[in-house]
Amino acid sequence: MAIGTLAYKVSLKPRMKWLLVLSALLHWDWLTNKCFTYELITGDSVEL
Hints:
Layout: E1 7-12, H1 17-25, H2 29-34, E2 36-41
Antiparallel strand pairs: 1-2
């Protein structure tokens, strides 16, 4: 059985800071998720 690790880089999209604050205050998870970008970080080899 092989075990691997997946790593993601999460960053805030440009000019989305105020929209993120508004969505957090209103508890709008769908809008909060649109403020971030998710990138999979790949290495030389990952054993899964």
